Predict the structure.
Amino acid sequence: MTAAPRFDELIHPSTRLSIVALLASADWIDFAFVRDRLGLSDSALSKQFATLEGAGYLSIERPVEDRRRRVRVRLTPAGRTAFEGHVAALRAVIDVETP
Amino acid sequence: MDDISAEDARQALRAVDEERRHVIAEIDLPRWYWWGLAAAWVLLGMAADLGNVWLTSGSTLVFGAAHAAVAQHVFSGRHKSSRLSVRASVAGRHIPAILFGCLLLLTLATIAVGFAVDADGAEHASTIAAGFAATAILCGGPTLMAAIRRRVARNAA
């Protein structure tokens, strides 16, 4: 990651940071995978997704596979840039405090 | 940002790393691939033992074509299940080359074992050699992927 450090208040809360970190390592992730991984309820996770989607950080797709409707979530380029900037900012904090 | 301490930042980075590791843990091939490959290997061995050149050649061609079609989808190791697709930059580009290399070695090993068993005077040498290969596939395949995941995790750290 070579993004410019940019602390992101929207990403930093622990649940949203975990969600974005998961999505950053994947092309897309099924809603159920994120829910099971983070141990959140459907509604709690939907709220977090809505916040991140509202900021333009993620997109939600609803493909139909094997006659089942799935919900897939992926980071947008803006979300990926914000995440990489946030991680760079966190590293910068550590570098400053532990020279 | 000023109110973030180094400890808070470390904790956040640990959480990021943990989630990345969870995605890396999903790098794998579907289980059906290993079972299908092992079964096809044994069937090819049985076909070879029948001694019909056309049957052996035909089944080898069908196997090669079917495997090429399947490998295109699964050999990246990024689509173990329909729950997520691991990012290419996370999985790395070497997994297909490693898997093809191992398959090539296994093919050579099967031929060598087949000749050795045949020289020993055993009947159905090809089937016996393919049985060894099938066992190696079922035991070694998942072990190989676990080693690849460890390597990816090490590189990501």
Remarks:
- The first helix of chain B runs from residue 6 to 24.
- The interface with chain A takes residues 1, 4-6, 8-10, 12-13, 15-16, 18-20, 22-24, 78, 82-88, 90 of chain B (CB under 8 Å).
- The CA atoms of residues 45 and 127 of chain B lie 4 Å apart.
